[in-house]
Amino acid sequence: MLCRSIEYRSILGIYLTHKGNEILCHSVDLECILVNGQIFLSDLSSLVARIRNGTKLAIAKTECGAAMAATHELIRQNIQDLHLILVPTSGLQADLLIGAGCVQTLEGSGVTMGEHGQAPCFGRFVGEGRISLKDATCPAVYAGLQAAEKGIPYMPMRGLIGSDVANYRDDFTIVSNPFAVDDPIMAVRAIQPEVALFHAPLADRHGNVWIGRHKPLMLLAHASKETLVTVEKIFDDNLLDDPIYGPATIPSLYISGIVQQELGAWPTRSPGLAEEDIKHVETYMRLAATQEGLVEYLDRYVLPGPASAQSRL
Hints:
Mean pLDDT: 88
CATH superfamily of the largest domain: Glutaconate Coenzyme A-transferase
Low-confidence stretches: 1-32
Largest sheet: 9 strands, mixed
CATH topology of the largest domain: Glutaconate Coenzyme A-transferase
Order of helices and strands: EEEEEHEHHEHEHEHEHEEEEHEEEHH
Number of domains: 3
Structural class: alpha/beta
Number of strands: 17
Shape: globular
Helix content: 25-40%
């Protein structure tokens, strides 16, 4: 119906106009392009508007593609009380969200700045009891996502039994293996993020997203209710039809919103495109060592203009 209509208006105040092979979607608070039914949002503000206070938000580990430009926009929009799920770890992206006061609960297996040292905001906020921590292991995070991907309530896994991690997680429970005698096994409750957010190298005009060798992003998209992606470039042909790109492409069925954002992972590494900006990360580590320094970092690099971080933290 949409492709045959020159203009379509709904009771929600959204109207569509046809322009060539594109359908433009207009509303008071959203601007996007629909190509073959897929939403391409016009800017980061529109993308991040899909994330509300209290959202269960999942982010990928840094080397898979941290959506840093979108993270800066999250902070600018003052999104708070996030339940942040790390898949399965994170670095600067999570540390910055924690320091900016966006996170209420952190679930995952660690926040680390790698060779730069301990994540300063993570260590400070956990030590002061300013965020709730749901500690896990990498296999446990993946198991929970796999359960959500398959639409089942939990995933059995080996390990964890007798560990402190299991003692502090009421959503990990020991069950009996129904196919063996005296074989306890750990059941990990399904983890279904409300929104997944990551940065990828390519998307095509159909809304398919190429993730390269970073297969955890495929699992993340399958498990989540919505998936929001920033990408470096737009591919003119269908990625799924390409024998090289196709096997590592997430179909548009699992993608909720896309924004083209070149260097969208800066200052972290953008897989296959740009290396980490080491000098900038060192600047972050120096400033974020104190809350006062973090405020200076946010004002200088994230909140340019009249808005000051001091009044928000």
